[in-house]
Each structure stands twice: as structure tokens, then as C-alpha cells.
Design brief:
single chain, 11 strands, 15 helices
């Protein structure tokens, strides 16, 4: 793969001392306070955690400091519960201070298994933040990008998809090179719907299919908004337009019913953004409830767990389509994992969840990271253009904290049935 900086060049950075620093300067990383290649035998300890709430992206950034001068970046979140997750991360600080951050797999096990109560999303999101930061430190200490620590690259680019709100949006994205999209379908339904509801959902999807053409991937986002009875009708009615996948046709807890729906259609079922740890995904795969998995690295348990889920999915011939709707640190970390696996389908990009217009933001990281990510004209992110710096390879925008001043925390909207006012799923 001659598109990558050669591994020999990276190995020159592993010797430590002046030689490593000179190699870093040639690679363009000198002067970055977060990066310092050290001798692999040198001791290194975690000294402090700093949390940065990023309400414009519904997330939390973590800076993990070390006595070697290396600062690792992490991210973990439960959207709408930022303060709760920040408290959970702070509770991990007592364990982490003084530990060697270059043992993320060991610390993952200790944090997860020493807790008597296992694996809720708040706990795993806090674990995600510290795990990502430790992997970032390990890559920076060795002077190599994260994907090199995960087995090396299996591809030279990562397919990304857009989420157009209109036909015009879709056409503009196609002009930018995108060839993969996901659109919402149907709205929230009742247990059993009338023909008009199904007809509107089909007509909306058909109109997007006509706008983008048959050569474009077009996923159907059902968002868990439907009961199994209506979901069965929708997946059959939409099948002639060959969606790329059906995402969350029903709520993810009902895996048995999702497995039954999967048997009704030739279109792949995708789910997983609200699922955490390899154990939950094991149950999904063993039931045959989905063949495209969508874990989020900021929820599921970090880099360590995302890699484990991808490996398990490969054994079931399932593909990976990671969720990444929040921040750029998690997105970059997730893409490093996807660069190292054989069973990638594509990758989501973050959205913007603020009405604040003081700062220009973008789904590629403008105002969040110093060097926004770049999507090529073929709808892919080239690894050589985005992910060759040590560790995760992103630096936070120097004005990030100021950019976030005055941005209020996002909250999930209340959902009520339009007919009788009863509670609806989000």
C-alpha cells in the first residue's frame, strides 16, 4: 500500500530521544504539545483528567495528561445526559491516576469487571472516553497512528455516507462525490397503520431513489419508531426500491422480533447505535437479528470494545457501519478501527445539534479540531489524507472552549402520540 507512509519510516520514530523528535519534526508533528515519542521502556503515568462538555455536538471531550508530556484525547457521551456521564468519568479518575496508559486492554477489564453492576450505557460511555484517550497516548508515545497498533491497514480509504434532508441536498452531495446516503422513512407509527401511512412512506423513499438513481446506496432510517406489526408492512413495501439497509425497524431491545423481521426481507437489517459491549452484540448476532452492526465508539466501550465487536461480526459474516453522530474525536478513533478490519460497509459522519450561529461548524470538524477531516471526490476518506499522525491524529481547536460558551445542553424532545397524547418511543 504505497499510499501510506512506510512502516519503516514509522519504525525510525520508535527509538526515543533526539532521533524520535527529529523524525517527528520531519513528519510535521514537532511543536505539538500532545505528541512526544518516547523510549518504549520509559515509565509513563496518568496525572490528570480534564473534561470539556461540547454541547453543540451533544458530547464530552476528555484530555488525559501524563508525566511524559503526552496528552491523550478521548470522547464519551450519552446525549442529553452530559453531566451524568461527566460524573461517571470523574469517578474513574481515582483508579487511573498513577497508572500506565499504554495498557488500555488491561484497564478496560479492570474498570468494567471491578464494577459489581455491569455495563449500562452511562458506565460504558465513561469507559469509552478513557479507553480512547489511552489508545491515543499509546500511539503518540510510539509515534504511530492508531490503526498500526490494531494490526495495520486493510484498506486505503473509508466510505462515508451523507444524510440529505431534501432532493437538492442529495444532488449537491453527489456533486461533492458522495455515493451513499441514509434518509428517514415513515415517521412514528401506531401498532398497525392504514394504507395512507404506508403509501406516504413508500412515495417519499421512491422519490429519493429517483433523485439519486439506481447506482447510489440509499439506506432507510426507521429509527426504532415502529412497532413490529407496522415495521413488517414497511420493510415489504419498500423492498422494490432496494434500500441499502433498514436501520432500526423496531426498538433494539426486541431482538427476537427483529430477527423475525430480518427473515421477511432480502434487505439487510442494521442496528446497534444504542447497544453496548460485545455481550449485547453477541446476542444480536446469535439470533440473526441484523447483518450490519452500528456500534458507536463513544458509547459501546471505546476502541478496545469496537475492535472486539468488529472481529465477532466477521465470524458471523456481518458488516460494520459505525454510528458517529456526535464528536470528532470519537469519529476519528472509530475510523482508525475501521481502517484495520476486513468487514467495513461504511461510516457515519457527525451532525450539528445547535442553533447557535456565532461559530461556523461542520460535520468534518471545523471549529472542533485544528485540521478538519477531508472527504475525497469519490465519497471516501483517504487514510493518507486524514489519519497518518500519531495516535488518533487530531488536535483540538484552540478556541474550542470559547466556541462552546453559551451553548446549552441538548435535550431529547418529548414525544407524544398525535391521536391520544400517550408516550411515544424516541
Amino acid at each position: 500500500m504505497n499510499r501510506f507512509l512506510s512502516r519503516r519510516a514509522w519504525l525510525k520514530q520508535l527509538s526515543g530521544g533526539l532521533g524520535a523528535l527529529l523524525a517527528a519534526e520531519r513528519a510535521g508533528f514537532a511543536g505539538d504539545a500532545n505528541y512526544a515519542a518516547i523510549n518504549p521502556k520509559d515509565a509513563i503515568k496518568i496525572t490528570k483528567l480534564e473534561l470539556i462538555p461540547v454541547h453543540s455536538s451533544r458530547t464530552i471531550f476528555l484530555k488525559m495528561y501524563t508525566d511524559a508530556g503526552i496528552v491523550g484525547l478521548g470522547e464519551g457521551t450519552v446525549e442529553g445526559r452530559i453531566e451524568t456521564v461527566m460524573t461517571a468519568i470523574r469517578e474513574l479518575e481515582a483508579y487511573l491516576i498513577g497508572k500506565d496508559p499504554r495498557q488500555p486492554a488491561h484497564h478496560w477489564q479492570a474498570i468494567y469487571r471491578h464494577a459489581f453492576y455491569r455495563g449500562g450505557v452511562v458506565m460504558t460511555s465513561a469507559l469509552s472516553a478513557v479507553d480512547i484517550a489511552m489508545w491515543d497516548i499509546k500511539g503518540k508515545a510510539l509515534g504511530v497512528p492508531l490503526f498500526e497498533l490494531l494490526g495495520g491497514p486493510t484498506r486505503d480509504r473509508i466510505r462515508v455516507y451523507g444524510a440529505p434532508n431534501s432532493h437538492d441536498d442529495a444532488r449537491k452531495m453527489m456533486e461533492q462525490g458522495y455515493r451513499s446516503f441514509k434518509i428517514p422513512v415513515g415517521g412514528r407509527s401506531r401498532y398497525s397503520e392504514n394504507p395512507a401511512f404506508i403509501k406516504r412512506a413508500v412515495e417519499n423513499f421512491a422519490s429519493f431513489r429517483e433523485a439519486v438513481g439506481p447506482d447510489v446506496d440509499l439506506g432507510a432510517e426507521l429509527h426504532g419508531d415502529h412497532q413490529p406489526q407496522t415495521a413488517r408492512m414497511l420493510v415489504k413495501a419498500l423492498e422494490p426500491y432496494q434500500p441499502w439497509f433498514y436501520e432500526e425497524p423496531i426498538q433494539f431491545q426486541n431482538l427476537e422480533a427483529m430477527a423475525e423481521i430480518a427473515k421477511l426481507t432480502t434487505i439487510p437489517i442494521a442496528t446497534g447505535e444504542r447497544m453496548v459491549t460485545k455481550w449485547q452484540f453477541r446476542d444480536l448476532l446469535s439470533l440473526g437479528a441484523a447483518s450490519i452492526l452500528q456500534p458507536d465508539v463513544t458509547h459501546c466501550g471505546g476502541v478496545t470494545e469496537l475492535k472486539a465487536i468488529a472481529t465477532m461480526a466477521e465470524a458471523y459474516y456481518a458488516g460494520m457501519l459505525p454510528h458517529a453522530k456526535e464528536g470528532m474525536i470519537g469519529t476519528a478513533a472509530s475510523m482508525h478501527v475501521m481502517a484495520s478490519i476486513p468487514n467495513l460497509v461504511g461510516h457515519e459522519l457527525p451532525g450539528m445539534f445547535t442553533t447557535d450561529t456565532r461559530v461556523e461548524r461542520s460535520h468534518l470538524g471545523k471549529s472542533y479540531i485544528k485540521k478538519p477531516l477531508v472527504v475525497g471526490s469519490d465519497g471516501h476518506m483517504k487514510i493518507a489524507d486524514n489519519f497518518l499522525a500519531p495516535g488518533i491524529g487530531v488536535e483540538l481547536d484552540e478556541d474550542l472552549v470559547d466556541n462552546e460558551r453559551g451553548v446549552t445542553e441538548w435535550e431529547f424532545p418529548e414525544m407524544w402520540d398525535r391521536f391520544d397524547g400517550s408516550v411515544l418511543d424516541h
